[in-house]
Amino acid sequence: MPLYETHVGMECHAELLTESKMFCGCRNEFGGEPNTRTCPVCLGLPGSLPVFNKKAIEHVVRTALALNCTISLHSVFHRKNYFYPDLPKGYQISQYGNTPIGVNGWLEIEKPDGTTKKIHITRVHLEEDTGKLIHSDGAGYSVVDYNRSSVPLMEIVTAFPPDIESAEEARLYAETLRSILIYLGVSDGKMEQGSLRAEPNPSVRPVGSDTFGTKTELKNLNSFRSVQRGIEYEAQRQIEVIESGGRVTQETRGWDDEKGISFSQRSKEVEQEYRYFPEPDLIPLEFDPEWLESLRAELPELPNAKKRRLMEQYGLPATDAAQLVLERETADYFEQAARGVKDTKAVANWMLGDLARLANASGLAIHAAPIPPAALAEMVGLIESGAMTGKIAKTVIEEMFATGKSAPQVVQEKGLTVSGADEVAGIVAKVVAANPDVVAKIKAGNDKSIGFLVGQVMKESKGRAKPDDVNRLLREEMDKL
Ligand code: ZN
Ligand code: MN
Asked: If you measure from the C-alpha of residue 25 to the centroid of ligand 1, how many angstroms do you get, rounded to a whole number?
């Protein structure tokens, strides 16, 4: 069997965060009592006319700029005609052809080994979402909810030939894109609610072949994990079809996450079947270059740039910085907590270690934990100044998380202050006296054995002694012998 390689094109749809829908004043919000956010425009009633939502256009332009696209100064809308009950007008207003809002951009993914790869993007365009069909279980009918009808939708398509060469790269692409959209504030990126939908188009071909294999399109992927699993499964399925002498059919396939399989949904329409034509009810968009430049100037610092800055400014390793920038609020939390702390690496460690664990267990994001950044900074400060050991801090942070109290308060109330020199000296004397054989070893030159005695003292002091002090006091004690 020849070796096969996988190529993946990605089509992603993101519902935009706007107050109202794309072409009418109805509220744009997830869920709600069915068909309560509708009007003649988004119900497609005869005689109703669409009006642009400026905020939605601005969101798409900002995204296209952030994705390094060229902006089409003249941008046109089209009707994509097809019949389906969730599409009341009988057509979707979309952008076809070579004047979508953004063209020829790219984003950069970072692989687990630290290498980066540019994924080219061919277009970023604006369209409208459809309604939602709700199928009755076995009762033989379906109903439709038009609350989502005409919600502003942005489509982002990767370039051909595809840069993405594995299921993992496809997942990284989707994750990176999501984090950029959230940083820009244009989408909430909730895959589980369908506000961000990734549709990969995987194909396989024998290594060495110069023509691409037939691709299939995967739908219903509602997590990053299912993006990766779906493509892995689909690539394997295509290889098996080819190896058994068959041909891959170009079609749309659904993903069943529970069973871990893809299944045929429908054969894919070809472009001609949509009978695209320019939307006569909307004028073309003409962008003012000055307006574009003002939007470009106001773009926030994006995840990749923020990551590089955190590494430089705070001396963080790449893995820590990458985790901190996943969400903008987490990075903000870190920068606030790092203010006035010398050991900024320790702040990152506490955030990504104990704090992340505690937050996770309560279903919270790190930045939403009941420990404000200043309180974490104060806790790290206590360790820095020697007023508390790192070991004690593990107990303290748990108590802070549970009660919302400050580190000094917890230390005070729980009697967790660092043991006084006298107290530690007493424990040291006791440990030395109780372990004459270990002491003899050390005196005979086996210096490593002192670790055992340090451990005994730490245990006796319940972690409240500082290891440096213990070391020094142990040597003083043994010198007396
Ligand atoms: Zn409406
Ligand atoms: Mn689309």
From this structure: 6
